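Input sequence (723 aa), recorded before submission:
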Amino acid sequence: MFNVITFMKTPRLLLCLLATSLASTLLAQPSYTDPGLSHEVRAQDLLNRLSLEEKVALMQDNSKPIPRLGVPAFGWWNEALHGVARSGYATVFPQAIGMAATFDEDAVFRTFTAVSDEARAKTTHNKQVENKRGKYKNLTFWTPNINIFRDPRWGRGQETYGEDPYLTTRLGIAVVKGIQGPDDSHYAKAMACAKHYAVHSGPEWNRHSFNAEAINPEDLWETYLPAFKALVKDANVKQVMCAYNRYEGNPCCGSDKLLINILREGWNYQHVVVSDCGAIDDFYEKGKHETHADSATASSAAVRAGTDLECGNSYRSLVNAVQKGLIAESELDVSLKRLLKTRFELGDFDADSLVPWTRIPMSVVNCEAHQQLALEMARKSLVLLKNDKSVLPLPSTAEGLLVMGPNADNETMQWGNYNGTPYKTITILQGLEAALNTSLPHIKTPHVVAEDKVQSTVDSLMALLPACEKVIFVGGISPRLEGEQMRVNLPGFKGGDRTTIELPSVQRALVKALAKAGKQIVFVNCSGSAMGLSEEDKVCRAILQAWYPGEKGGQAVADVLFGKYNPSGRLPITFYTGDNQLPDFEDYSMKGRTYRFLETKPLYPFGYGLSYTNFTYSNPSIDKSAKTVSVTVTNTGKRSGEEVVQLYVQRTAPQARAKALRGFKRISLQPGASMVVTFELDEATLAFYDAKSGDVAALPGTYQLEVGSSSASETCKRVVFHL
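Predicted structure, token format:
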């Protein structure tokens, strides 16, 4: 018999079940909001929910928020070249080229661990307190600059780790690991960026139109690419920035060879590629590369080559490009997934309570410990180039001492470029006065003047000279004269680059006048690049290379000049005798460049630096079974000091290649103490370009090994190794 009551209850039950199911569906947590899922799964889920317009907006460096999905704004462009930059107060460490002079991987790693501590603290503060997440406020830092400093006239060379691929590689890895934090952390501390990929190191004035072509494969694989390869494969760098210039006719940000064949396929790079700022515009703008017709075709080509993120405005046209069929939306998805995955890895979508790095307090910013680290790095970066008759260290007295030079009391010079702002800077004059606990007579002098004003300027300054025996002349140039594409047109300088490596005429003439007046000159040179100091070497009693030494630079210089610290820095670049030793600036061949290919004797060689003590080396010994080479280093002087022991390798047969740095170790020795220093002779140590395979390889053959205190062969001990 039909039950009316049951019939009446059934639809009501179904309705309840349907309502419950619908509510459950509506309340279900989208996968991208679930912190328990992998970053990749979350990125894919969010990607699936985006419109075309939203996708394109997220592929630009200043990414706008998407309120309907809870996606916050994000500024990709952030700087941390030698401290958190352009974001208020931060510890300012020595400029990158100065850090390179330390030849100290551990110290560089500790420095960038401190930098990422400050970065995390500032980012959390920006978000929680100031509600700012845009440019210079986030955690994707566009550093390190691992281009090879092939020519001292390049204004941006100060941002690099010098002219040697191996030194650049080792320090670049240390930077990346310090910034990004432990590899096994669920959330990255921050993201580093290997730039500018590839074959880019000046000139600045033509970088938007320059075509690096006819680069021989030896130079490409032994000089220009090794650091990039190592940061990708050994440091897991999370960003790579493609350069402005063309390579073999194609803009680097649209180069299939560089971005697809080598980077993605050859090195299996899985992370983000970002354009340099405005680089996509260069594809089509008049007077630049002009390889593409317009913004849409240029942007499509860049994305298809693997440039995921644009710093600039061209990618706005990707919506139109998809609609016109120039590129498929699915091709954009490949790039966008990488971008979203990076943001999930940083914890950008998650509550701060889930991300351990957000607990780093603002009190770490420019804290005492970081200031002391800045002092340590500045001390280790200083390179003593000359010390005639042991004039240094100076006696701790102000009597008969005068300070001159444009960089003596110059705060901003010490900060370098791409810099933050320290709470306090100790200038070199201030450091000297603090060391002596008294004021010093100081005559201000200019960096550079017009050529017809040189003599009158020197005459007027010499007329101010008080009675003195010794002059500490703090000269050189500044980051206001050399740097990235600058509006500078003064004698010796052009658009950020230099037209001569000689000391500016007014300074050279003034040093010569001081010497003629019988003054003992201690020359402290501040620069981000090599200077031609041949004339100064003739008349100065001592020369100290100070780079752009950061907020504690003045104290560090005083510590060295008065003997509180024994100098231990080494040159990461060759100091040439003068302009006459330099090839054409625009020629990217390595012939005649750097210690590896220079055919004449430089003023000061790569790896060079004096100490207040002396070190001797035994003859190297090879352990064939362990594949190692060892040398005993002894401190034969009267005070403790640090030595940088350097290994150079040259393949003599088959396919002879120029010698190259393949190992270095910084050691500390007390007077009379010795230490055995050992280097491995593994495949990486012995690998050079192999013309047959078109790659680098350790070939069976003969290798000459040199171990010593610089790249100058006459200072090294030699031994032959057969593989």
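Checked by second reader. DSSP finds 21 helices and 27 strands in the chain.
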